[in-house]
Amino acid sequence: MLQPLDIFKTDSEGGVLWCSAAEDLPAAKRCIEKLAHSSPGEYLILDQQTGHRQRMMVISKDDSIQALLPARTPVTTRNPRKTAISS
Fold first, then answer.
1. Is residue 52 part of a domain?
2. What is the dihedral of CA 6, 8, 43, 39, to 10 degrees?
3. What is the pTM of this model?
4. Helix (H, G, I), strand (E, B), or coil: what is residue 73?
5. What's the CA gap between 82 and 87, in Å, rounded?
6. Where are the alpha helices (DSSP H) in 1-86?
7. Is 45 among the domain residues?
């Protein structure tokens, strides 16, 4: 069975890069926490079934997650080679 949630890392110019997939939102957040240890910043969770998008901003310090917060910035596509997702 395919996992319905895709996880993307957003870059400083608004592009996105696919990172992983998850079965549900708690699993997606755990995955983002793991990814953020090496690459903190903004992540996008996309539900393939409903189209719902949730952005998460990860703030880390000294290799520990300080905050996993809903992000408010739009995600746009700047590079056709990256996955095209726009708000």
1. yes
2. 130
3. 0.70
4. coil
5. 15
6. 25-36
7. yes
